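Annual report, structural modelling task.

Input specification for the (2S,3S)-3-hydroxy-2-methylbutanoyl-COA complex:
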Amino acid sequence: MMDYSIRDQVAVIKLDNPPVNVLGSAALTSIYDGIGKADRDPSIKAVVICGKNGIFCAGVDIKELDNGLHAPWIKHIGDFIDNMKKPVVAAIEGFALGGGLELALFCHYRIALKTVRVSLPELQLGLMPGAGGTIRLPRAAGLNNAFDIITTGNRIPAEKAAMMGIIDQIVTGDIIEEGIKFVKSKCNIDTSLVCLRMKTVKYSGDLDDISEAFMTKVKSKFKGAIAPIVSILEFVIIILDLYYVHLQSLSKNSPTYTRAKGTCK
Ligand SMILES: C[C@H](O)[C@H](C)C(=O)SCCNC(=O)CCNC(=O)[C@H](O)C(C)(C)COP(=O)([O-])OP(=O)([O-])OC[C@H]1O[C@@H](n2cnc3c(N)ncnc32)[C@H](O)[C@@H]1OP(=O)([O-])[O-]
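The model returned the following structure:
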């Protein structure tokens, strides 16, 4: 399920669940154990998460979803990495889909080969991203890009994902070597400054329009499932937070502020 090795004081955690490295409970547990082992080892300065078979990860094991995947395990990995002082980079080849992209978004950084594709296809399956994608993707790529990616499930090429802010660097050559080189260059950076959960969300356009369009798309495709109701709310909460900040920025005598104040008794 996971291959743990050490190279040049960097722990390399390689997902190994052929053919496409899906995340079942066993795989998630082994990743969680690997991350904890690297964090506790004083000789380890940083961590690379990558995949075997030329693929990063095709997401959560859909076959396990039906019998209640231990989804909280996924969130525990994200929460753990958020609090790590050692930098963690996702070194992506092939594709990172669904929970695979969410796993990469748990990491402080993401590098990818040019041929990589990333997506959050869950809504096309009648699900919602259930591992923090609706929290971290807007912080990485902005609200508008996150809206498009979540509601369409489109596969985004690496270079476009880099322009959006999802990928930090496009690399060529051996992805593990590149991952080790990249993450070693980040060892002196305070990880709390690059943790996606702490980033502000950029957006353009009218928040009312965005939230209305989001709920319309979700209602038309979401069939209900584990946890993701929370994911929908997390995305809406981001919009509400932005709306509050927007309201605060308005002059107190503007008609929009007065109207909004009037409705927020
Ligand atoms: C929490 C989180 O937010 C949420 C909840 C989630 O993460 S939900 C999950 C989101 N992820 C997806 O929707 C990705 C779906 N998969 C694909 O798009 C494609 O598979 C592929 C990755 C682009 C590879 O295509 P391929 O043509 O090279 O090979 P294949 O023949 O299709 O697949 C090869 C084998 O892998 C199996 N497989 C692929 N993806 C799988 C998955 N996610 N779960 C379980 N099995 C999967 C597939 O059934 C087949 O098995 P078998 O039939 O040989 O026994």
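The chain has a mean pLDDT of 88.
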